[in-house]
Amino acid sequence: MENIIKHPILEIPERKKITFSFDGKKLIGFENMVISSALFLNKIKIFSHHVKDNSPQGIFCANGQCAQCNVIVNGIPIKACMTPLKEGMIIESCNGLPELPPDDAPVTVGDSDIVDCEVLVIGAGPAGLSATKILGENNIKVILIDDKAELGGKLILQTHKFFGSQEDVYAGKRGIDIAKIIGNSVEVISNVQIWLNTVCLAVFSDGLVGVLKNNEEYILIKPKNLLIATGAREKMLVFPGNTLPGVYGAGAFQTLVNRDLIKAADKIFIVGGGNVGLIAGYHAIQAGIEVIGLIEALSQCGGYKVHEDKLRRLGVPIYTSHTTISANGEKDVESITIGQTDKYFNIISGTERTYNCDTILIAVGLNPVDEFYQKAKEFGFRVWIAGDAQEIAEASAAIFTGRIEALKILKEIGVDISENISELEEFAEILKAKPSQPIETEIKFKEEGVYPVFYCNQEIPCNPCTTVCDQEQIVTFDNLITQLPYFKGEKECIGCGKCVAVCPGLAVVLIDYRKDKNNPLVTFPFELSNEKLVKGQKIIVVSNEKELGIFEINRSRILKEFPKTQLISVKLPSNIAQKAVGIKLYKSKFNEPIDLYQKALIDDEAIVCRCERVSVGEIRKWIHSGVRDFNELKALTKVGMGACGGKTCTPLIERIFREEGISFDEIIPCTKRPLFIEVPMGVFANIKNEKEKL
Fold first, then answer.
1. What would you report as the CA-atom Rg of the chain, rounded to the nearest whole angstrom?
2. What's the predicted TM-score (pTM) here?
3. Distance CA 457, CA 442 (A)
4. How, if at all, do strands 17-22 and 25-30 pair?
5. CATH 3.50.50.60-classified regions of the chain
6. Which of 2, 296, 316, 450 has the fewest CB neighbours in a 10 Å radius?
7. Assigned fold of 113-232+369-432
8. How far apart are CA 94 and CA 91, in angstroms?
9. Which pLDDT tens digit goes with each residue over 49-100?
């Protein structure tokens, strides 16, 4: 089994082992772990084969948004990523639909309860939790629902420290800790009902919202106010081999590794240089997984420079102006072929390179899960929207927008609020802003005393280093949260190291010349070992560009306020001390490209609709014949008719239209389904059937 048994940040809980079977083979998993993770635990990445072309199927989103992970459990087709594992489960590959029950199978039909509430919040991630906290503290009766088993949404996948304002969005704390802080504060509010494992199925024109609670009870909720905080779903790319098991979203990878503690891969390659891809790479290294490389189609990574620098310091090759040519393998991913592109994004001949890997993470952006909001607006609900469902941004921005929308609801209800919503919205725009271009900064070293050195050179909203300084000597230019920090030096630095430990970008070091002006003591943050490094241990000191040498640790400590960040002090020659940014334990291992994959690969063969296995070539054929109506395209090809309801393929098809020179105004959009999540028909009649209780 491939479970993670040690981690530098995450606590490893005791988990109960149970037995289950997959395609007749007896396996061992952990109770209540979702089935998809239990299969990965047993090194199974192929969950089924498609009935159309027998292509192997695996996970993609691990978030209930697609249907790639479908399996059959005790005779019922379900999503493996959303269903907890139970003792003795009989799980089979979903190579077609199971046999239908006989017509005379006895069932009991029940009425659906209708529950009234002041506010229904859909989604218990950072935005939903933040909003519920404000509403609950103002004595508003709230029902908070989420389709997962615990509060926090994507926060529970984040082992890194957050940027933003420490006062407003818990900057300097890790996502996993922020989830606990806000979650615990919501759980103690008496007028808040929390329904976990509850899926929102549909918003209806009569003002009701249909939900499936605990996979067995269909309930209708009639809210006076509705807040949508459903987050985002991952985008996909179209390239040959894009549906091979082993090609999946970076969020799915974080779910496997950081939530379910599965070592989901040995060697990964990342596609996308935004924050999601850069952070996923760092999470992989923390979990002991090798990152072969990362590509970004643009000329520079779009994520925070400090995240990029962390990977570069650890030896991860980052290739900008590169694209994916193909994912290669017979049954699952064996390698990836990439190529450099010109300014028109055409592949430059001769730049193709292929690298061995067993997993390809797609991190090319997110799309808002806003269909509930759009439908609620259409039906005249009093509805609000927050977090990534409103606009894709950092989780810190989601926390803040959840607060803002809650205040708007309070104002609508008639509750007096003291906050100035307009000012809060201005600050939210700062948190949501895209990172600026890096600034070339010159650090002026003085070879005396002790002081922090800041290697952050990008204006992003972040201030924890200014708030933890006991001497109040770390400030930003003009005291603006987006400006770069510096040390005033009006008072002596006491060398406490808090600024080093709190920095989300690991971009602060402490340099101490007090004892030796030629060989100062330099203190670095370190988050890559669950074992405390010790004095005398050898480590590698690095700049952002190269390794600077092997040195012995002079001192190792952990501050009480930051228990998962080690402060490692090393005595260095002054010329090296003024270049040193970080440390690592092992020399970087560079992977050489292998011979180019020989199978003939054609872009038109790439799959655009994963559910119905519709290719790019099929879509282009009908566009060339004059089709401009999504509904006609759907009738001709079955695109969008699969279990995911067109959630993944619709943006990809829109892109193909653009590539063919068809403007958005010429396209007739697809009619949205009334239900946004697939569900057994018997749910709506509240049929009680023991076989359906998984």
1. 26
2. 0.94
3. 10
4. antiparallel
5. 17-97+236-362, 113-232+369-432
6. 2
7. FAD/NAD(P)-binding domain (3.50.50)
8. 9
9. 998 999 999 999 999 888 889 999 988 889 999 999 999 999 999 887 777 7
